[in-house]
Amino acid sequence: MINIVVLISGSGSNLQAIMDACQSGMITGRVVGVLSNKADAYGLVRAQQAGIATTVINHKDFANRDAFDVAMQQHIDVWQPDVVVLAGFMRILTPAFVQYFEGKLVNIHPSLLPVYKGLHTHKRVLASGDKRHGCSVHFVNHELDGGAVIAQAVFDVLPQDNEQTLTESVHKYEHLLYPQVLSWLANGRLRYQQGVPVLDSQVLSRPVRLLF
């Protein structure tokens, strides 16, 4: 059983999906701690209601990103995580933090990486006239949204779609994709090896695409 630490900044809907998957046995693991940089993040309430330890480390209390990340690292270490999950954590991490948790640090991004790194992905999909959209789970490296992609959920963009409907669709698929990838980590099917994901002893030269 793996120990999972989740970093959040907001509502924690992906956190809820992960907690539910642990509860159901889909993920052979448990969320041992939730850390937020915002005291009013609703995800903290979700965790507390589930009896999970929480902490708030406000980035505004630190002189720079390095000091903030050191404080986070020290607190996360207390929870002894096997994996650290970024679930709507809206801070850019320092290279030192990423290197410290290399191979244990995963993120979900609302686009089919490598396209549309960064913000406003739904608007950019619509502006480009893309026919397909989705979300990606990837190992985190020093480059923003640039780590090796493990898996993606893909769906068709419909003529009537707008930013709101794409946001809702991506959230729905995130809540399916993230627990699936974490279940692979928990049961040993997924490993991180020299910067690349290995699933069922096969190096992933391209992401697994899941059509839910």
Write the CATH fold name. Answer: Rossmann fold
In which range does the helix fraction lie? 25-40%
Q: Which structural class is indicated by helix and strand composition?
A: alpha/beta
| Second-tier CATH architecture | 3-Layer(aba) Sandwich
Strand order of the largest sheet: 3-2-1-4-5-6-7-11
Globular, elongated, flat, extended or rod-shaped: what is the shape? globular
- Taking pLDDT < 50 over at least 5 consecutive residues as the criterion, the unreliable ranges are none
- Fraction in beta strands: 25-35%
CATH class: Alpha Beta
Radius of gyration (CA) equals: 17 Å
CATH superfamily: Formyl transferase, N-terminal domain
Major beta sheet, specifics?
8 strands, mixed
Task: State the distance separating the first and last CA atoms.
Answer: 26 Å
> Taking all residues together, what is the mean pLDDT?
97
Textual characterization of the structure:
This protein is α/β, with parallel strands linked by helices and 212 residues long. The chain has one domain (2-210): 3-Layer(aba) Sandwich (Rossmann fold). The chain has 6 helices and 11 strands. The strands form 2 sheets. Strands 3-2-1-4-5-6-7-11 form an 8-stranded mixed sheet, covered by helices on one side. Helix 1 packs parallel to helix 6 (163-186).
